[in-house]
Design a protein that fits this description.
- It catalyses: Endopeptidase action with P4 Glu or Asp, P1 preferably Glu > Asp, P1' hydrophobic and P2' Ala.
- Homotetramer.
- The chain has helices spanning about 15-30, 55-60, 80-100, 125-130, 135-140, 160-165, 170-180, 225-230, 245-260, 265-270, 275-290, 300-320; strands at about 35-40, 45-50, 65-70, 110-115, 155, 185-195, 200-205, 230-240, 295.
- It is of the alpha/beta class and about 325 residues long.
- The protein has two domains: about 5-240 and about 305-320, HybD-like (Rossmann fold, 3-Layer(aba) Sandwich); about 245-290, no CATH class.
- A hairpin with a 2-residue loop joins strand 1 (about 35-40) and strand 2 (about 45-50).
- About 40% of the residues are buried.
């Protein structure tokens, strides 16, 4: 018998639709109605295309109805520039296909929004992508007759965060859209994962925009088509894991290890062994509660990781948005 699964019961925080689907399937014991996906792997890059088709599927995995594409590249942490080039090329081709799928014209004007705080490394993905983006709108405005074929009008902004500007990012973006009137907004944001293995090795594309509470900055107002009046494509990379989620996952790993070595885990793990996942997570949060907040965990090499992945995304976007740039030969890293 199939049951709808409310992920709010788990309280496991993940911004990745793929992880939400995996958790729901694990609990449900099989596929989730209303959620379909396909995966393929090439050159160490696994691409998963996932579609949440209806409200039942949306409730089951806790994600908005829409299309999601996930790139998983475990070896991206090795700082291999050749692999980075391959990921940027793959990203460019897939993003170009994604825009065609949702009906974005090749000459549509684009506004790229880099969300996040440039002073906090794990949250600086958006501003770093904006730094490396090829902006062209000024040429279309000032000298349109001199723009070569194969380019489109692209503008970019990093609006900062409420604590620095005193203005919600969505309000800043709304004002820019009213004046510049782009046909599409691409929002870049840092995300949270439930798995350290996916931190800095995963890229998610979604046509659902940015919704309140998503992303590690916990934006108060979303960037969606309903709010902005134009389609919004979100690109995110998990750069952190919540400490409570990490500790909870460690219990699972210990349990599997003890089961493999000794079979019975009840004596070693006691009452914790009998708790359901959401109950165990509640216990972990209770233990961490004296800290007054849930800590965010990120790898110590985050400085290099964030620059590498930002360059990959920026290079891929530049190639996908401008036909004049060959998507088969994308240089992912600035040398």
């Amino acid at each position: 018998m199939t049951h709808d699964i409310d992920l709010s019961l788990y309280a496991v925080h993940t911004d990745l639709a793929l992880e939400a689907k995996e958790m729901a399937e694990q609990s449900n014991g099989g596929p989730i109605p209303g959620v379909v996906s396909e995966s393929h792997e090439e050159d160490g890059i696994t691409i998963t295309r996932l579609q949440v088709q209806n409200e039942a599927g949306s409730r089951a995995i806790g994600k908005i109805i829409g299309n999601y594409v996930t790139f998983e590249v475990p070896e991206l942490r090795t700082h291999d520039s050749e692999l980075g080039d391959k990921v940027a090329t793959s990203f460019a081709k897939e993003f170009e296909r994604f825009l065609q799928q949702i009906g974005v014209a090749t000459d549509a004007g684009v506004l790229i929004v880099g969300l996040g705080n440039w002073n906090v490394t794990p949250d600086a993905l958006g501003p770093l992508v904006v730094e490396n983006t090829m902006v062209t709108r000024q040429f279309f405005e000032l000298m349109p007759d001199q723009v070569a074929p194969g380019y489109r009008a692209v503008s970019a902004v990093a609006p900062g965060v409420l604590g620095i500007t005193g203005i919600e990012s969505s309000e800043i973006v709304q004002g820019i859209i009213e004046k510049t009137r782009p046909d599409l907004v691409i929002a870049i944001d840092a995300l949270a994962s439930r798995s350290l293995e996916r931190v800095n090795t995963t890229i998610q594309i979604a046509d659902t925009g940015i919704h309140p509470g998503s992303g590690i900055g916990n934006k108060r107002k979303g960037l969606t088509k309903e709010i902005l009046g134009v389609p919004v494509v979100a690109i995110g990379v998990p750069t952190v894991v919540y400490a409570s989620t990490l500790v909870n996952s460690a219990f699972d790993m210990m349990k599997k290890h003890f089961q493999k070595e000794q079979g019975d885990t009840s004596q070693l793990m006691g009452l914790v062994d009998q708790l359901a996942e959401q109950e165990r997570l509640a216990l972990v949060k209770e233990v961490l509660s004296p800290l007054k907040h849930d800590l965010l965990v990120t790898p110590k090499e985050i400085d290099q990781f964030i620059e590498d992945i930002a360059n990959v995304i920026a290079s891929g976007l530049n190639a996908a948005l401008h036909e004049a740039i060959d998507t088969n030969n994308v240089a992912a890293y600035t040398h």
